[in-house]
Amino acid sequence: MGNDDIRHVHGMHVVHDGPQQAPVLVLIHGSGDSSGSWSPVVPALADRYHVVRVDLPGHGRSLPASSYDVPEQAGRLAALLDGLGLRPVTVVGHSSGGYTATALAEQRPDLVGSLALISSGPGLDALLPQPAVLRALTAPPLGPLLWPIRSNAMLRRGMASVCNRPVDIPDDVVAAARRIGYRTFRTTLRRNAAYIAERSVPERLAALGIPVLVVFGAADRRWDPASAHRYDAVPDARVRHLPGVGHLPVFEAPEATAELLLDFAATAPRP
Asked: How many domains does one find in the chain?
């Protein structure tokens, strides 16, 4: 399996893997991350699916945007999928990427046949106190000072701080994180928070009427793992917990994560 295509569409960096005639899986990363964060599960997924990974605006190799509001991010993603002629798709979002995925399904039910969320907090009240190293890197007063001088080791410690198992963060993921501007990162966090403050994710999903998978690490260090039960209110949602796993299941338990996604995608609507 290799990358079939890497290009920019509507200013967004897009990577295609797997057979292009196969059903489509769209993978959306979280805040401060990039399309490379999915690399541990791509080989398993691309055996059966056309996997489309994107760098959201201002992240990875995508161009910055004038607005980072979640609905606008979703609108850009919809335009990208329209341009590629892909529908319906199964959309998978990690952490705040799940909010962009949800907003896409709200805006364009014709595009999204099913939705999987990994480590996506249901509401602001589920947010846990952040690890000290992550607060220092991302929040005032130290964040703006440390951001320009972040070392690769510091970035790796920040990413690993939300994990419960040892992880090996690839060099390309660290390099992509270094390219994100502090203002872009902080603005993205604020807009994500505004989206779930306006209406919780389970409330939004309950109105959609599409198949939903929710995956949560039972030892998530960013969101209260018990908050995953709020998704039980979504009709026919599958809620799965990964024992001993923190906020990055793709790195902490790639085989189990890929298996859950494959089982879910197998039941997704087909064109």
From this structure: 1
